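Budget justification aside, the reviewers requested a transparent look at the raw inputs and outputs of the sequence design task funded under Objective 1. We therefore reproduce one unedited record. The lines immediately below are the C-alpha cells for a 281-residue chain.
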C-alpha cells in the first residue's frame, strides 16, 4: 500500500481569479476500470492536510477496493498556495467544490474530519442548490457521508461564546487572536474574517437535507468538539438515514488503529448501501 501512496504526484488547480487566485494541490487516485462505485472525497480539518493518517488510510482503502479517491489541501494548508490567514469557510468550500467539479466523478462519498465535516455539509447544500439551477451545474450525486468529530458552525457555536476579553480585544485591534495548539508548536490563529464568514455558512439553524445516508463517528473524550455537538447535528438531519457512533474513550483526532478500523468500516458500509440502492428490486 505504501508504494502506491508514495508514487502519487500532486496535481494543481488554480481556483479564483486575480489577487484571489491560488494553486490548490490535490491527489487523485483513479478508479479501477469498470468500478462503478462512488469516488471517495477526503475533507481535512482546520490546519490539517491530505497527508494525515486518516486521509492516507482512506486512500489505502480506495486502492484496496479499486475506488477513485480525491484528496485536496485547502489554501494555506499542506502543498497548496495562498495564505492561511486569508482562509474562510466560503473560500475553502469554493476550493473543494472546484476540485470535485474538475475531477468530475459521477457519484461521491464525502469523508470529512472536524471542520471538514462542516465543509461536507455545505458541499451537500451547494451541490443541491447548483444542481437545481441547471444540468450544467449539477455536479456529482452525493451517495453518502462519513463525518469524523464533525465541527459544523464551530466558529459561532464553539469559539465565539467562549472568547475571553483579551481575545475579543485582539480580534478588534489586530483582526485575529492566537490560541495554543495541542497538536502543533505553532498556535492556532482565528481571524475576524473566518468568524464573520462562519456566520454566513451556518448549517445548524434549520433542517439540513443531504439526501444521502450519513454516518457520524464521535469521541466522548473529545476536548475540541463536545459530543453534545454531534447530537445537535443529528437533530438537524431529520430527513436522512443517520447513524451516530460514540467512541467512549475517543479523542478529537480518532486516529488510533481501532478508530481507523471504525472509519474504514463506516465508509465500506456507505459504499455497500449506495451500491445496493442502485440495484433494481
Amino acid at each position: 500500500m505504501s508504494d502506491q501512496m508514495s508514487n502519487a504526484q500532486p496535481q494543481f488547480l488554480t481556483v479564483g481569479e486575480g489577487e484571489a487566485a491560488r494553486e490548490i494541490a490535490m491527489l487523485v487516485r483513479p478508479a479501477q476500470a469498470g468500478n462503478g462505485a462512488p469516488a471517495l472525497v477526503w475533507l481535512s480539518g482546520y490546519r490539517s492536510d491530505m497527508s494525515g493518517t486518516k486521509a492516507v488510510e482512506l486512500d489505502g482503502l480506495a486502492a484496496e477496493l479499486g475506488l477513485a479517491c480525491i484528496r485536496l489541501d485547502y489554501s494555506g494548508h499542506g502543498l497548496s498556495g495562498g495564505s492561511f490567514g486569508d482562509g474562510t469557510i466560503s473560500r475553502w468550500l469554493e476550493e473543494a467544490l472546484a476540485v470535485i467539479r474538475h475531477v468530475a466523478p459521477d457519484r461521491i462519498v464525502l469523508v470529512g474530519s472536524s471542520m471538514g465535516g462542516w465543509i461536507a455539509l455545505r458541499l451537500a447544500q451547494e451541490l443541491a442548490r447548483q444542481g437545481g439551477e441547471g444540468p450544467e451545474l449539477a455536479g456529482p450525486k452525493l451517495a453518502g457521508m462519513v463525518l469524523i468529530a464533525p465541527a459544523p458552525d464551530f466558529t459561532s457555536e464553539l469559539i465565539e461564546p467562549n472568547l475571553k476579553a483579551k481575545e475579543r480585544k485582539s480580534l478588534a485591534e489586530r483582526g485575529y487572536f492566537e490560541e495554543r495548539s495541542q497538536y502543533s508548536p505553532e498556535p492556532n490563529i482565528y481571524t475576524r474574517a473566518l468568524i464573520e464568514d462562519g456566520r454566513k455558512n451556518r448549517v445548524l439553524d434549520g433542517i439540513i437535507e443531504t439526501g444521502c445516508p450519513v454516518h457520524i463517528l464521535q469521541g466522548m473524550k473529545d476536548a475540541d468538539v463536545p459530543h453534545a455537538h454531534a447530537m445537535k447535528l443529528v437533530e438537524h438531519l431529520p430527513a436522512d438515514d443517520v447513524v451516530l457512533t460514540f467512541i467512549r474513550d475517543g479523542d478529537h483526532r480518532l486516529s488510533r488503529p481501532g478508530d481507523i478500523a471504525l472509519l474504514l468500516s463506516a465508509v465500506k458500509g456507505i459504499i455497500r448501501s449506495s451500491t445496493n440502492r442502485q440495484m433494481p428490486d
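Confidence is low (pLDDT under 50) at residues 1-6. Residues 257-278 form the longest helix (22 residues). Computational costs for records of this kind are itemized in the attached budget.
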